[in-house]
TrEMBL record, chain A:
Subcellular location, record wording: Cell membrane
The species this protein was found in: Halobellus clavatus
Record lineage: Archaea, Methanobacteriati, Methanobacteriota, Stenosarchaea group, Halobacteria
ABC transmembrane type-1 domain ranges (all copies): 70-250
Protein name, UniProt field: NitT/TauT family transport system permease protein
Topological relation to the membrane, as annotated: Multi-pass membrane protein
Cellular component terms per the entry's GO annotation: plasma membrane
Gene Ontology BP annotations: transmembrane transport
UniProt-listed Gene3D superfamilies: MetI-like (1.10.3720.10)
Automatic annotation (TrEMBL), chain B:
Family indicated by similarity: Belongs to the binding-protein-dependent transport system permease family.
Protein name per UniProt: NitT/TauT family transport system permease protein
Spans through the membrane: 26-51, 71-95, 107-130, 136-157, 201-223, 235-252
CDD domains per UniProt: TM_PBP2 (cd06261)
Length: 261, 263
């Protein structure tokens, strides 16, 4: 909250000016968009007027389609990400703590991480079908790598001085892990989540576009197939809102969890 | 050599250490391949999981018969053009925004709005505009790679040591020359970091676009191999595109190390 606003309720010219500066270009582009589309300078199919898209967005939201598809997409992405987080942090922390685990997983991570994970979608369709389970497993496998790598690297970088001091004061191994290692590695682990989250959405969207089964990706492709471009744009607006919301949420969580840094 | 193995073979003489280290490092992969071979046919039908030997044979066949080349070329072309365009636009935009307030005021809001959109969600929009094919794939690769390059060059150009700029100005360098001869060279390491981040993203974007909106390229080949039930070919093509992505990243890192001698 802006504290100065309370002390000085007068219209704040400079902050209004900076707001104008920061969004004027967006307003110009949106107005141009509406004008060009309304005047018919660009074919309706390529660029429908903004107002039509917003109407379509409202319509899809009111009849529940948008919310249902958004729910499907988010459910798949988040459940997959949650599974990947559990396994990723587990494997990452264990690799950093245990030489045998590290020896086993290091080459697998080296080979597995650069695979363009999207190319495995046909494989998952073959193995697990095209339903929710298949999509969730795909997201889990795809997001496992950044979570595991960041967890491993940040655990490895925990200062040995911290470990020594805790051990000297008689901390048991388990308490050492939960009270010292995990909190010290937490910023790195959260960075892994921040990389994994957009990836989870990418995998879900592409899977939905290729295999259908509802979700915002499928909604977009349905729009393309039925030549309803407003539906494509409306779905992208929803995706943008979800992306912004998730980004904010993760930043907030980071601030909350890492308030001591 | 892996972090773990290096500590267990310290007793050996140096040249042996390296060989032994490399061998020990890659044993886990051999275990995985052996497991794969055992599972395929015994636990899981070979149709669902072809044996590693079958897939390896298929890879050889793809290259010997030359079937893979036309698709591989078109995929590489899309990646190179898309990434190349995003490097040019990204550097211009990043440095422009960092060094000029009007440019920053104009583009900032667009970056803030498009940053949280996963770029592969824009594939259907690209189909609307450009149809199914090469230009759609290039557009998606371009959009996906643009942000990491813009962000890295923006941060770097904003943090150029002011002393460097003052010294150059004092010696008579002006306007555009400061930009070209001082600021741009100073931001090259970060720009390369941005490109390094963009390379794997480029391959993800490429395969996404090719799976959804293409009738050529590796992604298309993988999808259709799966659809007609030629699973060994599907796995073989996945291995090929993964290897290409891996080599691209390694190659870039190698070049960067050689070239960035002054940092």
């Amino acid at each position: 909250m802006d504290v100065t606003a309370d002390a000085n309720p007068r219209f704040d010219l400079s902050s209004a000016l900076s707001l104008v500066k920061s969004i004027y270009s967006l307003v110009i582009v949106l107005v141009l968009w509406e004008a060009v589309a309304q005047l018919g300078l660009i074919h309706y199919y390529f660029l429908p007027p903004l107002s039509d898209i917003i109407m379509r967005f409202v319509e899809l939201t009111l009849n529940g389609q948008m919310l249902y598809n958004a729910y499907l997409t988010l459910m798949r992405a988040m459940v997959g990400l949650a599974i990947a987080s559990v396994f990723g942090v587990l494997v990452g922390v264990l690799s950093a703590q245990n030489d045998l685990v590290d020896w086993f997983f290091d080459p697998i991570i080296k080979i597995g991480y650069p695979v363009p994970i999207i190319s495995l979608i046909p494989v998952f369709m073959l193995w697990f079908g095209i339903g929710d389970i298949s999509k969730i497993i795909m997201v889990a496998v795809g997001t496992f790598w950044p979570v595991a790598i960041n967890a491993r690297d940040s655990t490895r970088q925990v200062e040995t001085k911290l470990l020594w001091s805790a051990k000297m004061m008689g901390t048991s191994d388990r308490r050492l892990l939960w009270r010292v290692v995990m909190p010290a590695a937490m910023p790195g682990i959260l960075t892994g989540f921040q990389i994994a989250m957009p990836l989870s959405l990418i995998i879900t969207f592409v899977f939905e576009m290729v295999a259908g089964g509802g979700g915002l990706g499928a909604l977009e492709i349905a729009g393309v197939r039925s030549f309803e471009s407003t539906q494509v744009y409306a779905a992208i607006i929803a995706i943008m809102l979800i992306g912004i919301a998730l980004d904010r949420l993760l930043r907030m969580a980071r601030g909350r969890l890492l308030h001591w840094t | 050599m892996g972090y773990a193995t290096s500590r267990h073979i310290e007793g050996l003489p140096a040249p042996l250490q390296r060989v032994a280290g490399a061998l020990v490092d890659w044993i886990p992969l051999a275990i995985v391949v052996v497991l794969w071979d055992l599972i395929s046919g015994a636990v899981v039908a070979t149709a669902i999981l072809p044996a590693p030997g079958t897939v390896a044979g298929k890879i050889v066949e793809l290259f010997v018969t030359g079937q893979v080349f036309s698709h591989l070329y078109i995929s590489l072309f899309r990646v190179v053009v898309g990434l190349g365009l995003s490097i040019i636009a990204g550097i211009l935009l990043g440095i422009g925004m960092a060094r000029s307030d009007p440019v920053e005021n104009f583009f900032d809001v667009f970056l803030a709005m498009t940053y949280p959109i996963p770029k592969t969600a824009l594939v259907p929009l690209a189909i609307l505009w450009l149809g199914v094919g090469t230009s759609t794939a290039i557009l998606i690769v371009f959009l996906a790679c643009l942000l990491p390059i813009v962000l890295n060059s923006y941060n770097a150009a904003g943090n150029v040591d002011q002393n460097l700029i003052w010294s150059a100005e004092m010696m008579g360098t002006e306007g555009r020359d400061v930009l070209l001869k001082v600021i741009f060279p100073a931001t090259i390491p970060e720009i390369l970091t941005g490109i390094r981040q963009a390379v794997p993203i480029a391959f993800v974007a490429l395969v996404s676009a090719e799976l959804i909106a293409s009738n050529q390229g590796m992604g298309y080949l993988i999808l259709t191999s799966g659809q007609i039930g030629n699973y060994p070919r599907m796995f073989a093509n996945i291995v090929v595109i993964s290897a290409v992505a891996f080599v691209a990243v390694r190659l870039f890192e190698e070049v960067r190390e050689r070239w960035l001698v002054w940092t």
